[in-house]
Amino acid sequence: MKHLDTTAPDFETRFAALLDEARETTARVDAAVAGIIADVRARGDAALVDLTARFDAWTPRDASALRVSAEEIEAADARIPPDRRAALNMAAERIEAFHRAQLPADLEMKDAAGLTLGMRWGALDAVGIYVPGGKAAYPSSVLMNAIPARAAGVGRIAMCVPTPGGELNPLVLAAARRAGVTEVYRLGGAQAVAAMAWGTASIAPVDRIVGPGNAYVAEAKRQVFGRVGIDSIAGPSEVVVIADAGNDPRHVAVDLLAQAEHDESAQSILVTPDAALAAAVAAAVEEELRSLPRAAIAAESWRRHGAIVLVRDLDEAAALTNRLAPEHLQLMVEQPRALLAQIRHAGAAFLGRFCPEAVGDYVAGPNHVLPTGRTARFASGLSVFDFLKRTTWVEADAAALAAVGPAAVVLGEAEGLTAHARSVALRLGG
Amino acid sequence: MKHLDTTAPDFETRFAALLDEARETTARVDAAVAGIIADVRARGDAALVDLTARFDAWTPRDASALRVSAEEIEAADARIPPDRRAALNMAAERIEAFHRAQLPADLEMKDAAGLTLGMRWGALDAVGIYVPGGKAAYPSSVLMNAIPARAAGVGRIAMCVPTPGGELNPLVLAAARRAGVTEVYRLGGAQAVAAMAWGTASIAPVDRIVGPGNAYVAEAKRQVFGRVGIDSIAGPSEVVVIADAGNDPRHVAVDLLAQAEHDESAQSILVTPDAALAAAVAAAVEEELRSLPRAAIAAESWRRHGAIVLVRDLDEAAALTNRLAPEHLQLMVEQPRALLAQIRHAGAAFLGRFCPEAVGDYVAGPNHVLPTGRTARFASGLSVFDFLKRTTWVEADAAALAAVGPAAVVLGEAEGLTAHARSVALRLGG
C-alpha cells in the first residue's frame, strides 16, 4: 500500500504514477478466438457441442442439451433458501424500479420554418447476456445485466453461462428467472459469444451482447463488434473512499477490503484530510485481514494497488478524485451532497457514513456494472440506454422545404454533391 | 441494380443475399497503425512533425505550426461568399437547437425504504473531432460532429484535419468556428488519433474521439479505444426509399442517386408496391445519370448495390425495412407517420414527398452521422448523448441501511464476498 501526501515535494510524480498504473495483463488470444468464431460460423451447433466438450469438461448429447429448460430453472428456484429468495426479490424489484425511472421520453418539435423534428427511442429486439461460470457466477450480475434490458422493453433476452463439469449455480438460474431472461444456455467462452452474434440452428442471433467474461470472452466481443453491439470491456474494479475525521476507521477499512477481495488487480484508495484517520484505517485493514476468508486476495490487492492519500482539505480530495475518475466513490463526510457537486468523473457515488458500496452492489437500485480504469471520464454504468436506440425523424411539406431547402442546395453544391443539391432544387421547382 | 419481387419464389433467398452483402473491403493496417501510435507516444511532437512530412506532403517547421491560429480561421471565414455563410449559419443554428432539445434531465428519487437514488448527467471535459482532409473535407460533417459536443457542455473541442500539400478548405474552418471548436490542428491519419488520445507537449489529450476517416484512422480509433472513448466505425452509407404511386419518379430517382454519389460502396434501395413507379424510377435514374457530375461513382454504386424491391403493400415494405435497418429511410407515402409507427430499426427517417434526405444531411437539425450497415438494430446517430456520461448515486442513513442492508448481507455471503457483507453488517451493529 502506498502513502501519498499532497504536501510532499514528490506528490505529483507519485500521483501521476498511480494514475498510470497498469493493473491488468491482457493475454493475447486473438488467433484462438478468431478460430473459434470461424468454427461456429461454419459448423453452427456441431461446433458448439465440440467446443463445449473441449473447454467445459462435459459433452452435450446434442445442441438441444445446451438449453436449460423452464422446468430446470423452476426446480433450481425452488431449492433456494427463503432468506436468499427474499433478498433476490428485493434486489430485483429495486433494480427494476430504478431502471424504469431512467426511461427517456421521445422528442417532437415543430419549428418556425414549419419542419417537424423528432427523436424516438426504441428497444433492441434481442440481447445476449454473458455470465461467467463456476465460482464467478454471481446472481447479482445476472440481475444487473438483464433487468435494464427488460426495463427497456427488449423482447428476447438470451443468457449464456458455462457449466464447467456440469456445475450450474441455482442462484444464477433464480436470478435469471426474476430478471426476465427468456432463454438460458449452458455455453461459455468465445463460442457463446460467436453463437449469440451469428446464430446457429438452435440459438437465434441477438443484436447486442453484454456481460463480463475472461480474456477469450472479451476478445470475442471485440471481434463480433459491428455485427452486434457490445458493452465496454471491464477492467479490474476500484474504489475511492473520501473520508473525514468523523468516521469509524473499521468501517472505512472494511469498505476498502470489500473492493480488494474481488481480485488481486482491484484497487482501493482512501483520500482523507485527517492523518489520524489515515493511520487508524491502515491499522484496521491489517486487523480485519486476520479474519477475512478472502484475505490472501485482498491483502495482495491492498499491498500492490492500495493507497492512502493525505490531502489538505476536501476541495483537494475532489480535484484528485476527478483525475482518478473512479468506478466507485464513497463520500463519507459531513456534507456529502456538497462534495458530490464537486465531482465531475465517477461511475457511481455512495453518500454518507451509512452507505457502503456493497449496498449499491446488491440492492440499492442503480447498476453495479460501471466504467473502470479511469474510463468514467467518458463512459457510464450499464442502464436502459444500453438497450435502447434512437431514430431521429424530420417531416417537411412544400412550404417547409421552401424555407430551409435553398440553404441545403448551397451547401450540397459547396461540397460538390450535386445530386444532393438537385434532390432539393427539383422539389423547389429548380 | 437488382430487381426483387416479394411474390417471386426466390425472393427470400435474394433478399437474404442483399442483407448479407458486404460492401466494404477493409485494408489490414493494424501493424502500421500500432507503429505510428507507439512513435507518437515515444517521441510526441517530433513524431507528429516527421509523420506529417511523410504522409501529408508538407513539413511543419515545428509542432507549433500544426496549430491553425485564430487569425487564420477568421481570415478563412471572411473569404466565404455570403450565400454560403448564410447557409452555414442557418445549418449551425438549426443543428444546435435540435441537439439542445435532446439534453436529458437528471433523476432523483427517494423511495419507501428511505434511500435517495439519483442519476446525474455530466459533459466530457475534452473531445477530439477528426475531419478527413482534401476533397472529402465536408463542412457539414464539422457541424454535425462538433455542435452536439458544444450543446452537451464540453469545454474543450479539438479538431484535427490533414492538409495534404498544405491545402485546407476555408469552409471547414468557417464551420469549425461556428461549431465551437476550440483548437484546430493540421494533422491527420493515425498520428492525429494518437496525439488526441495520448497527448503530446503541444496537444493536450482528450477523453473521446469522434469523426470519420480512412482505414488508418478507423484502426487507430480501435487501438486507442479504452484509453479514450470512440464513436462507432462508420461503413458505407445507405438509403431505403419507400414510395407509393403518388410520387414524381424523378424525385425518387435523384434521391437514390444522392446516396449513390457518395461512393461506389453506397447503397440505394427503392421499396414500392407500384410496378409502374418502379419502372419509371429505373428509367429516370438512367436519365439523371446523364447530367450528374459524379455520374461515374453514382452509376457504379447503383449497378453494384442498388435495388428495387416490389412489395405487395406498405406493411410488407415496413417489415423488409426492419430487416434492412437502414441508415437513412425516406417515407414518400400518403400517411408517413402511420408508416413510421411500423418502423423499428432506422437511423433517421424523412417523412413526406418534400423531405429528401439531403435536407437532413445539411439543415434540418438532427444529426447526419448515423449507424450504417444494419447497425441501426442496436446503434443510434450521433447526439449529445455521445458527449455526456452519467454518474449514479445513492444516499442512505442508518434507518435506510437498516431497511435494505440485511438483504445485501445475505447476497454478499451467498456470493462468497465476505467483506462486502461485513461492510454492511458492521454498520448494522453486526
TrEMBL record, chains A, B:
Keyword annotations: Amino-acid biosynthesis, Histidine biosynthesis, Metal-binding, NAD, Oxidoreductase, Zinc
Keyword flag DNA damage: no
Superkingdom to which the source organism belongs: Bacteria
Coiled-coil stretches: none
Sequence positions that bind Zn(2+): Q259, H262, D361, H420
Positions with a binding annotation for substrate: S237, Q259, H262, H328, D361, E415, H420
Metal-binding is among the record's keywords: yes
Cofactor(s) needed for function: Zn(2+)
PROSITE patterns: HISOL_DEHYDROGENASE
Catalytic activity: L-histidinol + 2 NAD(+) + H2O = L-histidine + 2 NADH + 3 H(+)
Pathway(s) the chain acts in: Amino-acid biosynthesis; L-histidine biosynthesis; L-histidine from 5-phospho-alpha-D-ribose 1-diphosphate: step 9/9
Active site: E327 (proton acceptor), H328 (proton acceptor)
Record-listed NAD(+) binding positions: Y130, Q191, N214
A Pfam family recorded for this sequence: Histidinol_dh
SUPFAM superfamilies xref list: ALDH-like
Assigned protein family: Belongs to the histidinol dehydrogenase family.
Function in brief: Catalyzes the sequential NAD-dependent oxidations of L-histidinol to L-histidinaldehyde and then to L-histidine.
NCBIfam families on file: hisD
Protein name, UniProt field: Histidinol dehydrogenase
Record lineage: Bacteria, Pseudomonadati, Pseudomonadota, Alphaproteobacteria, Acetobacterales
Chain's gene name: hisD
